[in-house]
Amino acid sequence: MSTILYARVSTTEQTLAHQRSQAEAAGFAIDDVVADEISGLTTRLIERSQGRRLYDKLRHGDTLVVRWVDRLGRDYEDVRDTILEFMRRGVVIRTVINMLTFDGATTDPIQRAIRDAMIAFMAGLSQAQAEANKEAQRAGIAHARQFGAKAGHQAYRGRKPSFSRRQLDDVIAALGREEGTSSIARTVGLSRQTVLRIKADPAEAHRIAALWEL
Question: Angle formed by the axes of helices 76-88 and 109-147, to 10°?
Answer without folding.
Answer: 150
